[in-house]
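User: Predict the structure for this protein chain, please.
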Amino acid sequence: MFTNNQIFAAPLAGVTDKPFRRIIREFSPESPIVTEMISCHSLVEAHKNCPRNFDKYDDEGAIGAQIFGADVNLMADAAKILQDAGAKWIDINMGCPVPKVATRANAGAYLMRDHVLAGKIMNAVVRAVQIPVSIKTRLGWDDKHVDWMDMVKVAADCGVHFAALHGRTRAQLYLGKSQLPDVHSAPIPIIANGDIRTPADMENAEGLGFSGIMIGRGLLGRPWALAEIAGGAVPQNIGPVVLRHLQYAIEYYGDKTAVMMFRKHAAWYSTGMPNSSDFRIRVNSMTSPDELKAEISKFWGCELNI
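Assistant: Here is the predicted structure, written as structure tokens:
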């Protein structure tokens, strides 16, 4: 069975920001966490409207910062910035399937179609920093191009330390069941990603030769998921967890933005609970942090002491 430092939190766009990583870390002090993807253009140009461009990672433990882009030089420069900010390793996104990244920006999953460009980016990033570099990719572009092993071999030749492999093609997006291949012959360690939620899923990945697992959507509303799959305890009343998460978001984004961004988290936290539909309707109309805190406290029956 994998230990805590082999159980990763996946980079989830719009989710694994600094406030959410802070909550995950409360339950999993040793687990590796990857940031939500960061645009190399936005980071290097220091766009003010993107708070994650200015994150510091010194106090975040085992944290990998993920970058995406198609410009070789900018990707290298972005990696240097993140290294200086305290990231423990750099992760290159080679699997994001959304059109604005994969087809319009020639980044993310597009790099599975252009191994030459992918190699140039990996080579430049590896040589730009003194910390490890990883990649996150998919099985291939579609069912006719399942060439993940070719990409992994290119990565190994470039000096990439390990790869995370999502068990779907780009064409599948997040539909259908993830299908993990046997990776015993891979030249570098591979981390399994996609539909991993239970100890049985973890055992299956280990049997296929994976060196660890990466949990993505299983973290939504369940920041303790990494600890739970490793045999840790689940909080009995999650209300205080939700309130702390909201407070961290307020400190990071400010009142207005935090409340708007937190609505989705409130929905995920409440999934499957009695009267959760009514709760989500009420939350989605709120703009005041105090009002939202009071509603969370009432819904979960916990003290409002945050």
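The chain is about 40% helix and 10% strand.
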